[in-house]
Amino acid sequence: MKNENTLIPSKSVLGVMGSGQLGRMFAQKAKERGYTVKCYSPEENSPAAKAGVIETVGDYEDYPKLKSFLRSIDALTFEFENIPAKALYTIEEVSRETGLRVSPSVESIRISQNRFLEKEFFNRNGLKTTAYLYLNNLDGLYANQIKFPCILKTNQFGYDGKGQGKFQNFSELEFFLKSQKNVDHIIEDIVNFSCEISVVAARFSSGKILYYPPSENTHKNHILDFSIHPAGVSETIKKKAIEATQILLTALDYVGVLALEFFVSNEDVICNEFAPRPHNSGHFSMDAARISQFELQLLTLCNIELDIAKLEASPCVMKNIIGFDFSEKEKDYLEFLKKNDYRLHLYQKDQAKIGRKMGHWNYLGNKSYLDAFPE
Ligand code: AMP
Q1: Which ligand 1 atom is the nearest neighbour of the CA of 224?
Q2: Where are the domains of the chain?
Q3: Pairwise pLDDT comparison (160 vs 369), residue with the higher score
Q4: What's the mean pLDDT in 206-226?
Q5: Beta-carbon neighbour count of residue 12 at 10 Å?
Q6: CATH T-level topology, domain 131-189
Q7: Residue 308 half-sphere exposure, CB side, CA atoms within 13 Å?
């Protein structure tokens, strides 16, 4: 990366690949600090644009448009990693030509968007994963002994459980894969986990790492439903998860914010995947921490290294609002809205859809999930 130690000052123009809620919350922080924010994505009238981000609506593969966007900004970050390979090359090319600061690196995005590369990278660096098998044609299915039940995932461009399924036996799996145009999948052994946790951390250009202690995540239909901070796991598990995150950040020579997700099993942590950006499980930090994950994204991007030894955060339960338009049920939540310890964040998405994240709550305090959000 060029301009490795250059400050990106407050009147600069920051670019974001993607324009969803994560771009929106990044921009809210950046705009508070005087930056102009532009985003690039195929979506019109996006959550980011509704927070005052200047939107370039373009296909990720519209190279002239993408190039002119990249030439109009002073630094680039990502709120979304599922960006086609050719667009990533374009970003590298423009960065080489103009010295555009790109954080995190394109290489980190490449690894994170490909489950096979990601798992190989974990293992090369001594980070445990579940057993997996990469399939790029049907031969691999016949040549290998597969343990059932198993989980099949698309190797690329899957998120929130999309492109993912559980298979009970060989014929089910074979039938499914034969119906696919391209076989680019990964098969995973199922992990019998006691819980899922994640660590959100930031690494600055100097190599300095700051992290929040792990959060504990509960999924419904493969989508994060709620997250408790800090996780109710042992100190040993916390330490192992934090160490794994530090190893990953250093091995990637990462600059920016990253979240590493784990399964906890038999007093050990097993890496599932990482997100090369702020993460849904780090939303507690918006209200329960002095420095939020979006501020960390801004500071790492702009080369402003925090002069603190650790990040401070208080207990929080984060609950996602998924699949319905909050305004239609607003009255049901009046009690929360009136209280001092509940914070609401809505993303201004045009339409609610099944599985679509529309916003989230942060409850600030020590209540259990069910006490904080009675069903
Ligand atoms: P992913 O898209 O890999 O984040 O998976 C979404 C969710 O599916 C995870 O958070 C787990 O709850 C579940 N899951 C994914 N992979 C496995 C696995 N190998 N074993 C057990 N559960 C899994």
Answers
A1: 10
A2: 13-102, 131-189, 195-372
A3: 369
A4: 97
A5: 18
A6: Dna Ligase; domain 1 (3.30.1490)
A7: 13
Measured from the CB, is residue 222 less than 6 Å from ligand 1?
yes
- Indicate which residue's Cα is closest to atom 2 of ligand 1: 161
In which residue are the tokens 């490449």 written?
Answer: 110
Nearest-angstrom CA–CA distance, 111 and 118: 5
Fold agreement (13-102, 195-372): no
pLDDT bin (cut points 50, 70, 90) of residue 2 is very low
Task: Give the class (CATH, top level) of 195-372.
Answer: alpha beta
- What is the reported pTM? 0.96
Chain center to CA of 9:
26
pLDDT digits (tens, 9 = 90+) for 291-345: 999 999 999 999 999 999 999 999 999 999 999 999 999 999 999 999 999 999 9
Residue 150 has pLDDT above 50, yes or no: yes
Predicted local distance difference test score (pLDDT) of residue 241: 98
Cβ proximity of 215 and 237 under 8 Å = no
What is the atom index within ligand 1 of the atom nearest the CA of 159? 2
Q: How far is the CA of 59 from the centre of ligand 1 (A)?
A: 30
What CATH number was assigned to the domain covering residues 13-102?
3.40.50.20
Identify the helix (H) or strand (E) that includes residue 174.
helix 170-178
Confidence at 54, pLDDT banded by 50, 70, 90: very high
- The Cα–Cα gap between 301 and 104 comes to 8
Q: Does 272 sit in the ligand 1 pocket, CB within 6 Å?
A: yes
Residue in this structure with the two tokens 């009046």, named with its chain if needed:
334
